[in-house]
Amino acid sequence: METIGFIGAGNLGTPIVTNLLKAGYKVKVYNRTREKALPLEALGAELVSSPAEAAVPGGIVMSLVADDKAVESVAGDELMQALGHGGIHASMSTISPDTSRALAAHHQLQGVTYVAAPVFARPEAAAAKVGNAVISGPAAAKERIRPLLEAGFAKNIFDLGEDVGSANVLKLMGNFMIAGAIEMMAEAFALAEKNGVDPKVAYEMLTTTLFAAPIFRGYGAMVVDRTYVGNPAFSAPLGLKDMNLVLQTATRSHTPMPLAQLVQSRLMTVVARDIKDADWTALAMGALEDAGLKG
Amino acid sequence: METIGFIGAGNLGTPIVTNLLKAGYKVKVYNRTREKALPLEALGAELVSSPAEAAVPGGIVMSLVADDKAVESVAGDELMQALGHGGIHASMSTISPDTSRALAAHHQLQGVTYVAAPVFARPEAAAAKVGNAVISGPAAAKERIRPLLEAGFAKNIFDLGEDVGSANVLKLMGNFMIAGAIEMMAEAFALAEKNGVDPKVAYEMLTTTLFAAPIFRGYGAMVVDRTYVGNPAFSAPLGLKDMNLVLQTATRSHTPMPLAQLVQSRLMTVVARDIKDADWTALAMGALEDAGLKG
Question: Which InterPro entries does this UniProt record tie to the protein (chains A, B) (predicted)?
Answer without folding.
Answer: 6-PGluconate_DH-like_C_sf, 6PGD_dom2, 6PGDH_NADP-bd, HIBADH-like_NADP-bd, HIBADH-related, HIBADH-related_NP60_sf, NAD(P)-bd_dom_sf
